[in-house]
Amino acid sequence: MNFTSRILPRTADVRVLLGLGLPVIVVQVGMMAMGVVDTIMVGHLNAQALAAVALGNLYFFGVAIFGMGVLMALDPVVAQAVGAGDHEAAARGVQRGVILAALLCLPASAMLLPAESVLGWANQPPEIVPIAGAYCRVSIPGTFGFFAFIVFRQSLQALGRLRAIVAAVLIANLVNAGLNWVLIYGHLGMPALGAVGSAWATTVSRWVMAGLLLALGWRELRPVLLPMRPGVSDPRALTRMFLLGAPIGVQHQLEYGVFGLVGLMMGWLGTTQVAAHQIALNLASVTFMVPLGLSSAAAVVVGHAVGRSDRAGASGAARAALACAVSFMGTTALAFTLAPRMLAGLYTADPAVLALAALLLPLAGVFQVFDGIQVTSIGILRGLGDTRTPMIVGLLGYWVIGLPVSLLLGFRLGQGPVGLWWGLVLGLVIVALFLLDRVRRRLQLPLRRVHIDHVQASTGFSPTDLGTQA
Q: What is the pTM of this model?
């Protein structure tokens, strides 16, 4: 049975997907909740603090997102090994993930240091640049904790063990909210640090999250973390794993970068525009966590199916993930369209910011469904081992088509923030349609495991094939 042989997913496929997907969604929403809490608590100071945190977060994730993507190579590597019953390959994958996390945090930390100069060069509002720069510098100590958490999370997801991830994220959210209350506003005898206090709260919370996950998931993680397997630090194998994950990182960078660049363009228009853009994007990002969780679950379930050479299982998981994502995002699109002012009012009472955010939210509603399609398709392709296609499609859809349209509408035709967002919508629609077609085509090809430790002559696999094998 191939992907096109039926449209609606089977109940059994939906049950398997949601069994993994619902806890992953809780985790994704929990991680996003940290940013939402930061934004809401800082937003009640003033629009300047809100814009500074938006800009600081924009810069931090613009730097860190490549490393996040590289570490998602754990999805096909570990999930396919688990599906094939290859415990040693799974353990080597996890251990190499830890090594890559340590290596990746070095350039990421170095790039956070000059944030203030870079943001000033990017012609951002001068009243918020120093605060955003300080936010980024304070975020540096949390970089490795952030990457380590991703390694442990992806590993436990591939192993099908999610309870520890949910508990760690929920506890870390409570810690983050409490530290925000203390450090932003200056309670319990602490100085009121404002937006920078939010950065300190997030940095501490990232280490809490990583440490808790390691402790709570130790029973499952210990067999794949200890003892160190022979050849784990082999530079050739590490390079192959990096090459598998690098296209994921680039794809994330391309997608995040175009949204980030539009955020910088909002800064050219003014502080109100930055704050309104942040509110609309933050709300869209909250709903995005659901299909993102489904995408991660699809990567694991499809990867398991590839490991056991189960074409019907891979196709069924793909259909189930896409159906669930489209259903949910269609519902949120209606909410964004029908109640934009009420939703924006959760973040600010500033009349100018509120009015502009209420104009942008219906546009976010337009691309909700397509956002769900594209991210879910990426997860399916990642489970198949195809990490290059999303990178290429993202380059064309977001940067070659979407961004020029944003510039044309936003500045040349004078549509301002609304015009900038319409370019994002167009790029997202194009990416979603191309990736959906790619999923259909790849599920009609033979299923083939990704190999990191050796080259299998019988399959014709070579290191240059990394990211394209399915």
A: 0.85
